[in-house]
Amino acid sequence: MRKFLYLTFSMALIAALTTYAMWAADRPAGHYLSDLRIDLAIDQGTPADRGNLLGIQPELFPTDYQSPERLHRKLAAYLQKAREQGLLNEKTIVVLPEHVGTWLMVSGEKDELYQATTLEEAMNWLAVSNPLKFVRALISAEGGSRLDDAHLRMKAKGMAKEYQALFGGLAKEFRVTLVAGSIVLPEPSVIDGTLKIGRGALYNSSVVFSRDGVPIGQPQRQMHPVFEQQDAIKANGEHTLNVVDTPAGRLGVLIGNDSWYPDNYRKLDEQQARIVAVPAFVTGRGIWDQPWRVYKGSQAPASVSLKAGELSEGQAWHRLTLTSQAPSSKAVAGMSVFLRGQFWDQSSAGQSFLTSNGQHFADGNVRGARLLNLWL
Asked: Can you list the domains of the chain with their CATH numbers?
């Protein structure tokens, strides 16, 4: 009788594990009709032979990341609209928002993940659908939030490959220099023209792709992650800023609130950066119009006298972003581009803007995908 019970239990366990393995391996492709519309919100300056800075503020949702092909379709539609309006040329620099690559972590997942109501529920589906990857990532996780680290780390190798194929492919397809927002990866580096990951800490990093679709220089790592990210994402302790050559001039990238630190502009000036791109992402419904939350866990620069509640979040972004504000910055132009959309219960709030000749030009529309263009 005991042997029979053991045999029955073993068979039931094998059947359960087999069913779970088949379920976890199944990735049905759901049907999704994406909104490909985008409006030109700002067109500043006069066309010349110096090129232009073109920001794409996309409106994205989890289902846009169901496959790299879906995300390509949406971003390519935006770029095609810009091309039809005469905004793409051999000297165009396109800027995409912060974390546009990070959400590749949910690419190729099961329908239950995209149908979740909260980010926490979606991450639970991510873990249970990829048990071996999740366990391996959890073992090597670092920082104060090992669970968040594991979620970001578990598909990092595939994410790096998809990120380069997607954004490098768009740069080559449309023959533009492309600042590919940012992506969170462990110890990212470019080796022989290929984006690779390491085994160390997670960094929020941005890669610039040339018109040939290859990375220019090394990934720019964020120096001042906001407090919501600090338990999982490490600050770039080396405080290195990369400036790269583009057909439109030397370009520097400041990720998110790295753009709030005057010393970063001095370092860019020392490398003769002519243009500054700021991929950004602000979460929280209505946050843009609420009182500024100061430096979010990082020490405020001595030269900045702003205090909490003195300005709104949006006003602080405009005040602290110093491009084209001589003598704070010698750059001729700058653009801050925010990710818009809804990721489960996490809403976005940033409104993209550009600076030129000491003036700010902002898009006040809070809905829909937007193009912002500045002729250099």
From this structure: 42-375 (3.60.110.10)
